[in-house]
Specification:
Elements (H helix, E strand, L loop, with lengths): L4 E6 L6 H11 L4 E3 L2 E2 L14 E2 L2 H9 L3 E7 L2 E6 H9 L3 E5 L2 H10 L4 E6 L3 H11 L4 H16 L6 E4 L3 H17 L1
Parallel strand pairs: 1-7, 1-8, 2-7, 3-4, 8-9
Antiparallel strand pairs: 3-6, 5-6
Helix pairs in contact: 1-7
Length: 187
């Protein structure tokens, strides 16, 4: 098998996963973040190949057909997936690989890699989550309602994760995540 560690990093849209991952990258540069594929439109400030690999639905389907996607899920009207080859390579190299992954995809990975460490990022409250989504300004009212409904469903599934971290403070949440990584490395 592999000598690296696979970490599943999930949470509802707007909980601050990307911002938390940025803080973690500064605190522990050795962490390898997998970059997901998505068919959604790029948001302002996002870079292809850094934030996501932005692909057409047709290209996504081609990658699926070729077996080049480890898992995929539909979130809203868009597809998200994990490219398989880089993850396998990093694990063989002994790296700690973080998959920022939707709950649907995490369930699949947990079955495929039962040794994976799973961490759910929780908002301090649903009100704070809605406020963060509104401040982001990237969703219309209908999409916002859909994302809040999806968030409630995802939060119900958080019990299936090894750890839950409340993202009420980026620094505290990042430190808690790194403590979990260090403690599980000793086991």
């Amino acid at each position: 098998m592999s000598s690296g560690k696979l970490v599943l990093f999930s949470g509802p849209s707007g909980v601050g996963k990307d911002t938390l991952l940025e803080v973690l990258a500064k605190k522990r540069p050795s962490l390898q973040r997998s970059i997901s594929l998505t068919t959604r439109q790029r948001r302002a400030g996002e870079t292809d190949g850094v934030d996501y690999f932005f692909v057409s639905p047709e290209h996504f389907q081609e990658l699926l057909s070729n077996g080049d996607v480890l898992e995929f899920a539909q979130y809203g009207t868009n597809l998200y997936g994990t490219p398989k080859k880089p993850v396998d390579k990093w694990l063989r190299e002994g790296k700690t690989v973080i998959l920022k992954i939707e709950v649907q995809g995490a369930e699949k990975i947990m079955r495929m890699y039962p040794q994976a460490l799973s961490v759910f990022i929780m908002p301090p409250s649903m009100e704070v989550l809605e406020q963060r989504l509104r401040e982001r300004g990237t969703e219309d009212e209908e999409d916002l309602r859909r994302r809040m409904q999806i968030a409630r469903e995802e939060i119900r599934k958080s019990r299936e994760y090894d750890y839950i971290i409340v993202n009420d403070s980026l620094e505290r949440a990042a430190d808690e995540f790194l403590t979990i990584l260090d403690e599980t490395a000793k086991q």
